Amino acid sequence: MSEDPTLISHDPGTGLWLLSTPHTSYVLRVDETGAPRHVAWGPRLTPAEAKGLATPLPGPTDSFEGTTGVGEELPVDGGTRYGPPSLQVRYADGSRAFAWRPEHHRIHRPEPGTHDLELTFRDRVHPLRVVLHYRVREDSDVIERRVTVRNDGDTPVRLLRADSAAWTLPALPGYRLSHVTGRWSAESRLHREPLPHGETVLTSRRGSTSHHANPWLMLDDGDTTEDRGRVWSAALAWSGTWRITAQHTHDGRAGFTGGAGHDGTALPLRPGEEFVSPVFSGLFSEGGFGGAGHAWHEHIRRHVLPHGDETAPVLYNSWEATGFDVDEAGQKALAARAARLGVELYVLDDGWFGGRRSDRAGLGDWTPSPDRFPDGLGPLAAEVRRLGMRFGLWVEPEMVNPDSDLYRAHPDWVLHIPGRDRTELRNQLVLNLARPDVAEFTYGWLDRLVTEYRLDFLKWDMNRAFSEAGWPGEEDGHDLLWTRYTHHLYDILDRLRARHPGLRVESCSGGGGRVDLGILARTDEVWTSDNTDAMDRITIQHGFGQIYPPRVMGAWVTDVPNQLTGRSVPSRFRFHVAMAGLLAVGGDLHTWSEREMEEAAALVAEYKAVRHLVQRGTLHRLAGPGSEETTVVQYAAPDGGETVLLLWRCVPRHGTPRRPVRLRGLAAGARYRDTRTGAVHHGAVLEGYGLDVELPPGDWASALVHLVLEP
C-alpha cells in the first residue's frame, strides 16, 4: 500500500483506501466491478494491517437473496440490490438504476490538519457523475462524508433519493440503537433499545430538524456502558427534512444510510446541475457512550461552531416576564434588575414590533412599534449598554401573520397550494424562503436591524412546521423548495455573520425544534426546550448532551410555579440545573424579593467561576436521570487541573443508600481542594473510591462542588 504524507493511503493493487484518524481507521475498496465497497471501521490500523482485510465479499447464496446494501459505501438502486437505496435516480426515459464506473480520485488538503479524498464515478449507461467525499482531521476521530451528483447529460433526471453516506458496522452478536424522540416541550428523550430486524426509519417531514426526532444515532452490541465498550455513531448536518434508515439484515449485519429530504420528494436535476449533499459525519469510539460524547463535543467545538472556544455570556430574556406586554420603560426597568444579577447580555423577546399585541398579528412587520418605542430601540439599547450588558433581540424571520402589512402586500410569498386551505398554526404561515425575492427581503431587513441598533445577539425563532408546502409558478417548485429553503436559510445566516462579525445567534424553534450540525455551523447556541421545569430539564439535557456539547445548550432559570408543569422548585435547584449548560435567567425580576435577588446574584457569580469548565471541559455523566439516586454530572479541565460537579436529587426515597461519587479525568498523583469547604482530597481516592457529597435533606436538593489543584 502506497504511503501518502496525509492520513489517507491507497493500494492500487487491491483498490484499497485507508483513512486514518488519531485513534480509528476507515477502510474501503473499489472492487473488480468498479463499485465502492466497505471493508472496515474501527480501531486504528497500519497500511499493512489494512491490506490483510482486502478480501472479496461473499455473493448471494441462492436466487432469492441478492444484496441488502449493508457492506456498500453507497447502496444504489439496480441489479440484485434489495435494501434501502442511498442513491435512487429516475432518468428522462423513465428508467432507473446506477452502475459504477470509476473515473479518477483526488487527495488534497483544504486547510492545515484536514485531509480530503474524492472518488469520482460515472454511470455505465447515462451521463451521471457521482463523487464520494471523505474528510479526516489530525485532531478528531470524526469522519465527514458527503456526496455530489452531477447531471452531465442534456436531459433532466430526478433524484428520488440522494443520501450523504451509508455506514456499515462489523458483524456483532446483536445491535442496540440509541436515539432521541420527543415533542414540543419534551424534546431529547433518550432511547436505547435492540435494533429490530428489518428497517428502522428516523425522519422529519416537517420542514426542519423537528422536536420529534434528531438526525443522529448510535449503535453498539448491547453491552456498552457509559465508560466501556464500542460505539458507532453518526450525525447529519442538515436543518430541513431528513431521513436516516438503520438496517438489521437477516444474516446478522447492520448499517445505516442518511441524508436530506423525506419520502415522497423528487429533486429535479437539470442538464449541467449538481446536487451537493449535506455532511453526514461518523465516529467510532471504544470509550463507551461517554467516550463517544467527549469526541463529538470536542469536534463540534473545534470544527463546527463559529466560535467554539468563546465564553458565552450569562443572558437575560424578557419573554416570561412580559409576554407581549412590552414597552420601553418596562424593559429599562427589567434591564436594571438584570444587571444587578450579573447578567451580561439582555435580550428583548417578542412584542416589540409592528402591531404585535398577541400572536395573532404583526409577525412580518419588523419595525419597532411607535406607541411602545417612540424613538425606536435606540434608547433601550443605549441603556442596556450603559448598564454594562450587551443587547439582543428576538426575531422570527421565516413566519408571517395573515394580519400583517407584509402578508397583505405579498400573500403569494407563503408556502401554499392553489385551491387548498392555508393552514394556520400559532396563527401564522410560513414564508417561502426558497424564493429568491423572499430570501433577499429577509436578509435586507435583518441587516438593517442589526446595523441600526448594533445588535450583539439574535434569538432566531421558528414556531411552526411546514404545511401546504407548495411553490406555485415555479417549475418543479413543490419538490425544489425543501432543499432550497434550507440553503437560503443558511445563506442569510452566513451573509449576516460575514457582514457583522460581532453578531452572535441563537437557534430556536419553539425550543429544540432545529438542533443539528448544519445550524450549529452558523449559530452559537440553541434553545434546548421551551420547557424550563428543572426536573424535566434534567432528562431533556441528558439526551441533548449525548451528541451536542454543553457549550451550545441554552438553559434558563424561570419563575415558579412553572408555566407548563405547575411545579414549584427552589431557586437554588433551578439555578444548579441551568448551570449544566449556558446559564440564563428568564423570570419576572419585578416580582423577585431582595433576598431572591441576592441569592440569584450569588448563584450567577458561582456559575461564572466554573463556566469555563462547563463550556469547554470534558463532560462526564456519573449518574444519569431515572435512577433512585442522585443525578451527577462532572466537567473536567482537559489537563485535569480542576473540575466541577453538579448534583441534583429531586425527591428522595426513604432508605436509599448514599454512595460516594467516583470522579473521572483527574491528574495522576494530584490533590484537590474543595473551594467551598477547604477540604483536600487525593485524586486517586476521588477516582478509585469516590467523593461523599452530603446534600441538604428533603426534596429538591442540589450542590455544586468545585475542586482545584492543591499546590
State the gist of this model.
It is an enzyme of class 3 (hydrolase). Helix content is 21%, strand content 29%. It is an alpha+beta fold and 711 residues long.
Description:
Keywords: Glycosidase, Hydrolase. It catalyses: Hydrolysis of terminal, non-reducing alpha-D-galactose residues in alpha-D-galactosides, including galactose oligosaccharides, galactomannans and galactolipids. This is Alpha-galactosidase. By secondary structure, the protein is an alpha+beta fold. It has 3 domains: about 10-85 and about 100-285, Beta-galactosidase, Chain A, domain 5, CATH 2.70.98; about 315-525, TIM Barrel (Alpha-Beta Barrel), CATH 3.20.20.70; about 620-710, Golgi alpha-mannosidase II (Immunoglobulin-like), CATH 2.60.40.1180. About 20% of the residues lie in helices and about 30% in strands. α5 links the parallel β23 and β24 (about 390-395). The two termini are about 50 Å apart. About 50% of the residues are buried.
